[in-house]
Amino acid sequence: MRYIGRDIPRRVWKWWFNNHTVIDTLKRIVGAQYVLSSSDDVAVYKHDATPLFSGTPDAVVLPRTTAEIQEIVKYAAAAGIPVVARGSGSSLSAGTVPIHGGIVLSLTRMDQIKEINPAEMLAVVEPGVTTAELVTAALKLGLLYPPDPGSKIISTMGGNVATSAGGLRGLKYGVTRNYVLGLEVVLGTGEVIRTGGRLWKDVAGYDLTRLLTGSEGTLGIITEITVALVPNPAQSLNGIAYFASLKEASHAVNQIIAAGLLPATLEFLDQKCIIAVDEYANLNLDRTAGALLLFGDDGDLDVVNKHMELMERACLETGGFGIEIATEITRSEQLLEARRCSLPALSRLAPTLLLEDVGVPRPYLAEMVAKINLVAEKYQVICATFGHAGDGNLHPTIAFDEADPDAKKRALAAFDEIFSLAISFGGSISGEHGVGAAKLPWLKDQIGAEQVALLKRIKFAFDPHGILNPGKLGS
Amino acid sequence: MEAKKISPQLLSPCISCGYCLSACPTYQITKDERSSPRGRISLMKEFNSGSIEVTNELFVEQSSFCLGCRACEPVCPAGVQYGALLEEWREITWTGKNLPLRIRGLRIAVTMTPIIRLLGRLRRVKRNTQKNAGQGSDFLMLGCVERVLYPQLSRVIAKRFPSIVINDDQGCCGALHSHNGAPNKGHEMALSLGQDLPGRIVTTAGGCAAHLSTEIGREKVIEFSEFVLEKILAGELTIESPIYIDGKIARIGLQDSCHLRNGMAVFQEPRQILAKLGTFIDMKSSKDCCGAAGTYAIMRPDDSTAVLSKKLVEIEAADLDFLVTLNPGCQRQLEHAPDLRKSKVRVLHLVELLELSLSTQTLEGSRQIR
Known about the structure:
The complex is a heterodimer.
Chain A: H1 10-19, H2 22-30, E1 35-36, H3 39-43, E2 59-61, H4 66-79, E3 83-86, E4 103-106, E5 113-117, E6 122-125, H5 131-139, E7 143-144, H6 157-163, H7 170-173, E8 180-187, E9 192-196, H8 208-212, E10 220-228, E11 230-231, E12 235-243, H9 246-258, E13 265-270, H10 271-281, E14 291-299, H11 301-317, E15 321-326, H12 329-340, H13 342-345, E16 352-355, H14 365-379, E17 382-388, E18 393-400, H15 405-424, H16 440-447, H17 449-462
Chain B: H1 8-11, H2 25-30, H3 37-49, H4 57-65, H5 82-93, H6 101-111, H7 113-122, E1 138-140, H8 144-149, H9 152-160, H10 175-179, H11 183-196, E2 200-203, H12 206-216, E3 221-223, H13 224-233, E4 244-245, E5 248-249, E6 251-255, H14 258-264, H15 268-277, E7 279-280, H16 296-299, H17 301-317, E8 322-325, H18 328-335, H19 338-342, E9 346-349, H20 350-364, E10 368-369
Parallel strand pairs in B: 1-2, 2-3, 4-10, 6-7, 6-8, 8-9
Antiparallel strand pairs in B: 4-5
Helix pairs in contact in B: 4-5, 11-12, 12-14, 13-15
């Protein structure tokens, strides 16, 4: 049996749940209409966007305020009931699947942008605000929230912070953790703390903001987020180049970096992704090409133009062809959109998609993609690869049919081997999607047993009863 | 008898990515996964696996809470055909005792062709029968709602486009059946209409256009805005100048027809026409459902109003002279919105606005109204 409810074992809280008025208490806290408990009502909260993982919640609660969450967590801590925070449920690591049951806290109703302050260049939001909503609101004031996760039209800020979401602008702008200034968090004890604040420089105490960012709901429930914004660049240009394979495209990436550039966008897709994306978005892509590199930069017009020229040259020198620079904003947006929808578009290949999120140091990119192809061949699986070439974060995606047990076995074996490959290059098992339940078995391979033990001790400090998202990090 | 299931091949493309959530009007109101397209697909999967019953309250409720606007389809990278799923779903839930009385009545009403025809005649729907009309001709489809509520549309079309054949003995296209739990009957009715109108079918209702094009083929159907644009491009129709109101070019907004936009990808055409008729204001919410959603406004008036009210702020702020619709259902919904009735914006079907423009043109070029 896994570590869960250090104080109160599962069978005890389950008994409590079934024999006490837990549901009535929850209804009293948030209002009857925001508590779901019948088996059909909670059924839609069994999954997130990760295949093969599910867990049935005992109750789903949609709170509106920090005070409500505090009361729920206090009650759950006393009874030892697991509490799993959830936003839009777009997690790709089973991070929001309640694998041990308990209460799912859906934070989607906490969807207010509390403040966007151009003078301080920051925004204060509730966790249920979607990334796209924040980006749009900031843009109206000439500001940019740089993190750009692929699923930004639905992913919530709470989820972004909980996973330190990355995305398409990682190389130049960094990821979510680089923009979180302060958090309000309900700990596993029911205490409410505020970390950081409105300052870039603030070293009073341990950097709990940074620790909570990427904690995947295992240390606390994030109830308010303060993020830094930057001035929106005057100009943004994107272009594409085709290559014979991802390997050549990787060489182009290295050439671009070697030229002294730090572009906003450097993304690639292999042929299977090109076809799937083009099926969906009708972008007139060259479906015969082995790989596509999407490159772009932002800043002042003359600088961007110069950078685009240099990138174009780097592509040509490394075997790039069919280069197209999007002169219209709509085309440019379309190309970025094509990259963002790669994963769901791949579902045209097979009903189940096993998605990797490995990262390797950039110099090993070409070698890594070549080895991924060998793994796919070895296990005879369909593997489509896309990813953030600029920061070495790859998404090899294995498409198979869950109903075929042999195919599933081969897919899982290939999945496992790709993790080992990434680790052997000094890389990571997860660049931006999080460890969740899906990658927890491989965590020790990357960070070592001592560190895994340390994570558990850290979790204990924040969540002594082990009720927050059990079965994930720190469990 | 084996209980009917929802087609697994329609369900399997969904990988639960959730990209549909932001497009779904009911999810945007509740923020509850149960009323999102992904949640509804989860329910259908649960039903198929046998863990929920056909009479399950949530299962039945969600099948009717869904507007059926299909806004989730164009945003779905996996290409899930949600509209088709919903048709099957309602066929399963809206049967026997569970079939709402009002739907039962409406379904029967639209199959009574002689009565629809009589009502059309009473409302002076224009006829234009032509003897040698055949496959090469364009036929106007007289929608059931339109015949009774907006007979002027057919009169304008007969006047401006005399080559269009208008038979008044045509029946209903069956969209109402397909969207309300009887897809087989809906399919039959579409086929029969296709035989009655052997050429290209011009429709003034986006919902009917999308249904017909699914059932009898996209090439057989041309929606009115597509038709007008075609005539403009062919030089057969000229819009010489925009409409002026009080000396200023009219500000025109659009209410997309959901099925037209999401099912047939027709949304550029009306925009191009409106840009010729005045200053076109492309509101962010133009594409969002107005809450009419076929029978929805009749079945669930409160939810329908909630969906509509999300749009009203932007419409008011846009300071419009005209709000143009492409479907009689939307037109009725917007005409009856209390907030809009108080404001200066006039709700018109594209046909009516076009007529307004053409009739003022013939007098003195760019003419002023009011």
